[in-house]
Design a protein that fits this description.
Blueprint (H helix, E strand, L loop, with lengths): L5 H4 L2 H5 L6 H4 L30 H11 L6 E4 L1 H13 L6 E4 L6 H8 L3 E4 L10 H7 L4 E7 L11 H10 L3 E5 L21 E6 L12 E4 L2 H10 L7 H11 L2 H22 L5 E4 L6 E6 L2 H10 L5 E2 L9 E5 L3 H14 L2
Parallel strand pairs: 2-3, 2-4, 4-5, 5-6
Antiparallel strand pairs: 1-7, 6-7, 8-9, 9-11, 10-11
Helix pairs in contact: 4-10, 5-6, 11-13
Bound molecules: pyridoxal-5'-phosphate.
């Protein structure tokens, strides 16, 4: 859909406003042999006395080579949550524009849409937790700015078939946000490569799950460079702090470590699945492409409390449409998983 006018998708106010230009905008490379008297920082070195690079040049270079994109196709944020908010604010006019959500899915799309006063249209996933394409197409209006797709989906765990995502991209000329927070656990490939073919596609990933760094708060988004420039214009200048940039860079120096952990988690997920089938209180285990399992039980509230009283915290997802009587279980370490299984044995009466 190369005929999409990308500029036209951006809110007029975002084009008009002048962004804040910080001292470090111009001189972010602090390795240079200069005296920095431009930013009112404290001059005494403690490794964090200087403001961080607002464009995360080194980190983006490293991510770009890993993800096979250009650094100018990357936005980094204080977690994907900040990135999703920046995306919404770049394209959606409050009290006017619509977004399409596909429940049951990640709750932040709805929270952020509400905070930004958007009109929310919902189209349920089908019984396989895949897209109801025709119902989605029927919901698209002139005001529809964004469709949020989560794949693998949270909390259901399944991946959305690539053909379905492409069908949306071929038909819809607004923004498609594809949240791939769990893609590294999946057998399905990331669709980052499609941002060249579909300039209205924005792919989000995160350091919080497979990369094991939820605490540093680092989200990534990949899109055409025109969009990225607008995101940069409205993001807070120092949204990714220096400790985060340093830790992420260090992790990316040894990507094999990431893969080892992913494989361990996948082995444990299979192991958990195999053992959970045996229990009578578990009605169904949904197949997962992520680091968690959604299980349907006989009585979710009762089971949730039983686990809690024995020291295991699960996520009760029963209130979500299509997820009645379900609990979401994150794959733990082998020791944690075997404790969890032992509790299952105790309560399986
Ligand atoms: C966990 C998760 C994220 C990650 O959010 P961060 O703010 O990067 O920690 C994003 N999307 C989905 C669907 C998630 O489950």
């Amino acid at each position: 859909m190369s005929e999409i006018n990308l500029e036209k998708l951006v809110r007029p106010i975002i084009k008009l406003i002048k962004s804040y230009s910080s001292a470090r905008n111009e001189f972010y490379n602090l390795d240079e042999d200069k005296i920095f008297m431009d930013a009112n920082e404290n001059p005494y070195k403690n490794s964090v006395n200087r403001y961080p690079d607002p464009f995360q040049v080194k980190l983006k270079k490293s991510i770009a080579s890993l993800k096979l994109v250009n650094p100018n196709q990357i936005l980094l944020g204080n977690g994907s949550d900040e990135i999703l908010d920046i995306i919404i604010r770049t394209f959606c006019e409050p009290s006017q524009d619509e977004v399409i959500l596909l429940p049951p899915t990640y709750g932040m799309y709805e929270v952020l849409s509400n905070i930004n006063q958007l009109i929310i249209k919902k189209v349920r996933l089908n019984e396989k937790f895949e897209l109801n394409l025709n119902l989605i197409f029927n919901k698209i209006s002139k005001k529809t700015k964004i469709i949020f797709i989560c794949s693998p989906n949270n909390p259901t765990g399944n991946s959305i078939p690539t053909e379905q995502i492409i069908a949306i991209l071929n038909k819809f000329s607004g923004i498609v946000v594809l949240d791939e927070a769990y893609v590294d656990f999946s057998e399905c490939e990331s669709l980052i490569g499609l941002i060249k073919t579909y300039p209205n596609l924005i792919v989000c990933q995160t350091f919080s799950k497979a990369y094991g760094m939820a605490g540093i708060r680092l989200g990534m988004c990949f899109a055409n460079s025109i969009f990225i420039n607008y995101f940069n214009k409205i993001k807070p200048p120092y949204n990714v702090n220096s400790l985060t940039q340093d830790r992420a860079l260090k992790l990316l120096e040894s990507p094999e470590k990431i893969n080892n952990v992913i494989n361990k988690i996948l082995d444990e997920r299979k192991n958990l699945e195999k053992q959970l089938i045996k229990f009578k209180f578990i009605v169904k285990i949904f197949s997962s492409d992520a680091n968690f399992l959604l299980i349907m039980v006989d009585q979710a509230e009762k089971r949730y409390n039983q686990f809690l009283s024995k020291g295991v915290v699960l996520r009760n997802r029963s209130h979500l449409t299509g997820c009645e009587n379900t609990l979401r279980v994150t794959v733990g370490t082998p020791e944690e998983n075997s404790k969890f299984i032992n509790i299952c044995k105790e309560i399986d009466v």
